[in-house]
C-alpha cells in the first residue's frame, strides 16, 4: 500500500503532541539502548540526522560535533524545537523531506536516521539522497525495523501492513538492508547485535 508524502506528513502532524507518550514503553524497553549503539558509531565534525521527529536522539548527540537535523512534519519539528530549548541542545533544525534534500553533494561526515525509512514513500529515492550528501569515505548509519526473516512472521507483517500504514503511515514490511545495498555504497554491513526485525545498518560511501 503506497501513500504520498503529504498524507503521511498529515498523520505525523496529528500524532506529534502525543508521539513521545505513545512510544514511551517501547522507547524505554528497546529503542533507547539501540539509539545509544547508533550514536556510539557516529564520527566526524558535521552530522546530519534525517527524520529528527520530536528529538528523541538529542540525549545522544556528540558534544563536539556540528549537527543539522531535518523532518518533513512541521508539528513534529515544533516538538523538537521545544525539546531543543528545554535541553539546550546545539542543533540546527530544518523543515525538509529526505526524498529531496537541499544540501550540496558530499556535505556531511556522517548521516544518521532512526526508524525513518518505514515512513518514506519512495525509500530508494531517500536513500540515494543520503548517499549523495554523504562525503566520500563517510558513513550512513540507519536504525530501522524491517520485515522478519521468519516466513510465518513475515506473512503476518505483510498482512497487517496496510492497516498500520493507514493508521500511522509507517510500513512494517520494508527490506531496508537490501535497499541500502542497491544504492551504490562501497560497503554495507549489519551490526552483529541486530535482531530479526531491528537492524543497525552501517553503509560506507
Query: What name does the CATH topology carry?
Result: Rossmann fold
- Specify the overall morphology: globular
Structural class by SSE content: alpha/beta
* Succession of helices and strands: HHHEEHEEHEHHEE
CATH level-4 homologous superfamily? Vaccinia Virus protein VP39
Count of discrete alpha- or pi-helical segments spanning 4 or more residues: 7
* Mean pLDDT, all residues: 92
The N- to C-terminal Cα distance equals 31 Å
Spatial sequence of strands, sheet with the most strands: 3-2-1-4-5-7-6
- What CATH architecture label applies? 3-Layer(aba) Sandwich
Count the domains.
Answer: 1
Biggest sheet features: 7 strands, mixed
Q: Helical percent range?
A: 25-40%
Strand content: 15-25%
What is the β-strand count?
7
From the alpha-carbon coordinates, what is the Rg to the nearest angstrom?
A: 16 Å
CATH class: Alpha Beta
In terms of per-residue confidence, which ranges show pLDDT below 50 for 5 or more consecutive residues? none
What does this structure look like?
With 205 residues, this protein is α/β, with parallel strands linked by helices. The chain has a single domain (5-204), classed as Rossmann fold. 40% of the residues lie in helices and 22% in strands. The protein has 7 helices and 7 strands, in the order αααββαββαβααββ. It has a 7-stranded mixed sheet. It is globular and about 45 Å long. The relative contact order is 0.16.
Keyphrases for this structure?
single chain, 205 residues, alpha/beta, Rossmann fold, seven-stranded mixed sheet, 7 helices, 40% helix, 22% strand, globular
Amino acid at each position: 500500500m503506497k501513500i504520498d508524502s503529504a498524507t503521511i506528513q498529515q498523520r505525523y502532524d496529528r500524532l506529534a503532541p502525543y508521539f513521545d507518550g505513545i512510544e514511551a514503553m517501547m522507547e524505554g524497553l528497546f529503542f533507547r539502548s539501540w539509539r545509544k549503539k547508533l550514536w556510539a558509531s557516529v564520527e566526524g565534525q558535521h552530522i546530519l540526522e534525517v527524520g529528527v521527529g520530536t528529538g528523541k536522539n538529542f540525549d545522544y548527540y556528540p558534544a563536539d560535533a556540528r549537527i543539522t537535523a531535518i523532518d518533513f512534519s512541521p508539528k513534529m519539528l515544533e516538538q523538537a524545537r521545544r525539546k531543543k530549548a528545554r535541553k539546550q541542545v546545539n542543533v540546527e533544525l530544518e523543515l525538509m523531506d529526505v526524498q529531496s534534500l537541499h544540501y550540496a553533494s558530499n556535505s556531511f561526515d556522517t548521516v544518521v536516521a532512526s526508524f525513518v525509512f518505514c515512513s518514506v514513500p519512495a525509500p530508494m529515492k531517500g536513500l540515494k539522497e543520503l548517499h549523495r550528501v554523504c562525503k566520500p569515505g563517510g558513513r550512513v548509519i540507519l536504525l530501522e525495523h524491517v520485515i522478519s526473516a521468519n516466513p510465518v512472521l513475515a506473512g503476518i507483517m505483510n498482512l497487517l501492513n496496510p492497516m498500520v500504514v493507514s493508521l500511522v503511515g509507517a510500513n512494517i514490511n520494508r527490506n531496508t538492508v537490501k535497499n541500502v545495498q542497491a544504492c551504490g555504497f562501497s560497503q554495507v554491513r549489519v551490526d552483529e547485535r541486530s535482531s530479526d526485525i531491528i537492524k543497525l545498518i552501517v553503509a560506507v560511501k
